Amino acid sequence: MSKVFTIAEGLENLGALRTGGQGSVYKGRRMGPIISAVKLLPTPIHTESTDDKNYRNFLNEVEKLKKVNEIPNPNVVKILNSGITESGSFPFIEMEFIDGPDLEELLKPPHEKIFTIKEVIKLADQLASALAHCHKVGVRHGDIKSNNVKFNIHSGNYVLLDFGLSVMSDEQRRSSIRHAGAIEFMAPEQNDGQMLMQTDIYSYGVIIYELLAGQVPFPLHDNGETSRNTVMMSHMETPVPDIIGLRKKNMPESWPKEKQDYELQVPLWLLKLVAKCLEKSPQGRYKNGMELQAAIVYNSIVEIRNEITPVTKAPVKQELEHIAPLSNPSNQDSLNYSGMMHLSKSLFTGLIILLVCSFGYIGYSFLHQSKPKVMPLATAQPRDSVPARDTTDNNYTEPEQKTNTDYLDKQQVADSTKRSIQEQIEKARQSVLPQQDSTTADTVKNNP
C-alpha cells in the first residue's frame, strides 16, 4: 500500500481506518512488524512553540495521557506516541492497534440487535474499570460511543479507544461536537462545550442502554442540523424511554422461548444504575468512574450472594424432607438444615421443669432421710443417769436405725422416677419426629 503522506519519521502510514469531523484514524507501522493506530486531529499546529496556545494545550493533554499508561489497564488502549506530522502539521496520537470489531459493528447484522444480560454486565464492568483508570489520573475521555469501544479478539476484553477529544482545547471541542460529534451519546452539558467526568458517565449510560434496548435512547435519523438539534434537546428535556419495552421489541426471534423469557429479567440494580447515569443534571449522576465501578462491584457481589444462598440450602432441605416427611406443616419448624431434631419451645420448657423438680425431690429425699437426729443439749442426760434397760418390759422397742433395707427402698423409688421421665421424653420425641430405621439414621448422620 502506497503512502498517502508521512506521519512521522519511522512511522509509516498504511491507510485510513476511520474518518470523521473530530479527526481521522490511520493504520500505522513502526520500523518492524509493530502495527498501531494513529489519531490525527483536524486542527493543524503550524508553530511548535509554547507561545502557541493550541500547541501548549496539546502538550498538556498529552502529558495527562501518558499518566494513563503508567499503570497498564487491559480495558484502556495503550498510548504509544504523540507529536506533529511532518506534512500538514497535524497533531497526532499513536495508540496500540486493537484487532477486533467495535460495539457498533457487533450490534449490526449478522449479529443480534441486543446483548445477553451476561455480556452486558461483563462490558459494564470492564468499561467502568476503564473510566475509573482514566479519572484517577484526571483524564476525561469526552467521546465515549459505540465505535470507540472495541472487543479484543485475542484477550476477550473490551477496550476503550480514541482519546482524541481529550487533547483538544475547549474551543476546538465545542466546534467539533456541534458539527460532527456523535450527538446520540452526548451529555446535555456538552452542548455548552463542557466536558466533566460526569459527562463520561452519561455517555457510558447511553452505551449500556443501547446494549440492553437495541437502540440508543434518542436515535439520530439523519445528520441534518434539525435532527441533531432535536436529539440534543431530547437529551436535555425528554425522559428516557423504557428499556424493557424496547428490549422485548428487539428480542431476536431465533432465540428459544425459554431464553427470551430469561433475557427479559434484567437485574433491577442494573436498570437503576443506567437510570442514574442518564440523569439530566451532572450532579444526579455518579461523580466519576471510581464511584461507578464501586457501585457495579457492590451490586454484583450482592447478586452472587443472593444466588448462592438458596442453592446451597436446597439440597440439604430436600434430603431432610426425603428422610423424614412431615405431614403436619406446623412441625416443619422442628427441623433445621443441619439434620438435627428440635422440640417445640413449650414442650422443651415443660420437660426441663419436670426434670428439675424430679431431681430436686430425689435430692431432698436423700438429704432429709439421712439427716441424723440430734437431741438438744438442754435435755441431754449424763451417761451415768440413763436408767438401765428393763429387759422384762414387753413394750420396750429398740430405737429406729438406718438400715440397708431403707436405702434400697429409696434407690428403687429414684430409679422408678428416672424411668418415668425417660419414657415421657421418648413419647415427646416420637410425637415430633417419626421413628427412623437404622439405615435412615445413618443417612442423617453422614449427611448433616
Explained architecture:
By secondary structure, this protein is α+β, with helices and mostly antiparallel strands. The protein has two domains: 11-308, Transferase(Phosphotransferase), domain 1 (Orthogonal Bundle), CATH 1.10.510.10; 331-368 and 402-448, no CATH class. The protein has helices at 53-68, 103-106, 117-136, 170-180, 197-213, 225-237, 243-249, 257-263, 268-277, 289-323, 345-370, 404-432, 438-446, and strands at 11-20, 23-30, 35-40, 79-84, 91-96, 149-151, 158-160. The longest helix has 35 residues, at 289-323. The two termini are 72 Å apart.
Give a quick set of tags describing it.
46% helix, 2 domains, 448 residues, 5-stranded antiparallel β-sheet, elongated, 13 helices, disordered C terminus, Transferase(Phosphotransferase), domain 1, alpha+beta
- Summarize the main sheet: 5 strands, antiparallel
Order of helices and strands: EEEHEEHHEEHHHHHHHHHH
- Beta fraction: 5-15%
Q: Any idea of the CATH topology of the largest domain?
A: Transferase(Phosphotransferase), domain 1
The total of helices stands at 13
Radius of gyration: 43 Å
Pfam families: Pkinase
GO molecular function: ATP binding; protein serine/threonine kinase activity
Region (Disordered): 378-448
Biased composition (Polar residues): 432-448
